[in-house]
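Render this sequence as a predicted structure.
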Amino acid sequence: MAAPRLPRPHRFDAYAALAGLLGGLLLWGMGLAPRPETEPVVLFPGPWPLLVPLVVTAACELMRRAAPRVALPVATAALVLDTVTQGNLVTLVMFTDVMYAAVLYGTPAAARRIPWITGLLSVAATLVPFAVWRVPEALLIGVAVGIVSFTPASTGLIVRNHRDAAEAARLRAEQTALLAEMDRVQAVNAERARTARELHDMVANHLSAIAIHSTAALSLDDAATTRRALEVIRENSVEGLAEMRRLIGILRDTGGDTAPSAAPTLDGLGALVEGARANGLDVRLEAAHGEGLPAPVELAAYRIVQESLTNALKHAAPGPVGVALTRADGVLHVCVTSPYGDRSSPRAPGSGAGLVGMRERAALLRGTFEAGPEPAGDGRIWAVRAALPLTEGDPA
């Protein structure tokens, strides 16, 4: 099995290693060494032995970022070897940088352990020589060990903590921006859906009546029928324009002096039913909802009744249409029934979004919605049923 290849060194590390090697060679060529040959600690006198730790430490400097777990032990061994030669200041400087990089770029476990180890070594290098020799100069050994090992290790830990904190802050900022964007998109989509529901419910009723009566006016050669159809068309056109102006006023409202007209309430059910009767429906209204209903519930109930009457105008067979609103146990129940026939095609074209909009209105209030054919007497009816909780958070 082939041995794993070391990662490619960073370009900056290559420059640092080359600069350190050249600087060390320059001091070596000038004969500058921190220890003379006569010191007892120098086991390998002469200028040549100190080149070995210099070259090895430069190689470790080359791998300071790519392989810190390998670079630090090897550099430590090279430093020990350097202490028994005449030494080179550049070797010492490069070792401190390797120690710093091992904490900064190493694993989190190594970053926690290395400062502790170097700190203990510094304390030991201070106390043991002083206990043996009993001279103040022995304390300098611990100081030197602390400067070479503990100081770069602790500096690397501080820089790493600041870097991790900055990275965490950046990630939190990105997450906050992402959540804000998601909220914005959801708000835009919700507003679009709300506007689509309002636009559909406001316009579909009037345009359906206009389409049906204009068809009747064109197909029947009767002056009275044509005049009546044109009156209904005009009435629905005026009401549709008023509804459109209300919606545009809401969309353009910026908090100025001109406030948009109020949203429809259940007090307008009578006018809504009268308009449906004028359009040709035999509508019977039964309302016992009382007072003090929340505005969202009133608007949803009004729009559900309005859309149901529009669907009855387009699809229902001849016969009575029933509208009932009852309030019980904190829930407003809305029921609209119409004769269910086998009409081959609707009296006016539709988009199919009416049922979707009614279901969405009920779901937004945590209510329920059902629509479909039901048996009734000798035939069948189409029933629209919605249960709208009057208190936010009530179970549907």
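Summary. DSSP finds ten helices and five strands in the chain. Strands lie at 282-288, 320-328, 331-339, 368-376, 379-389.
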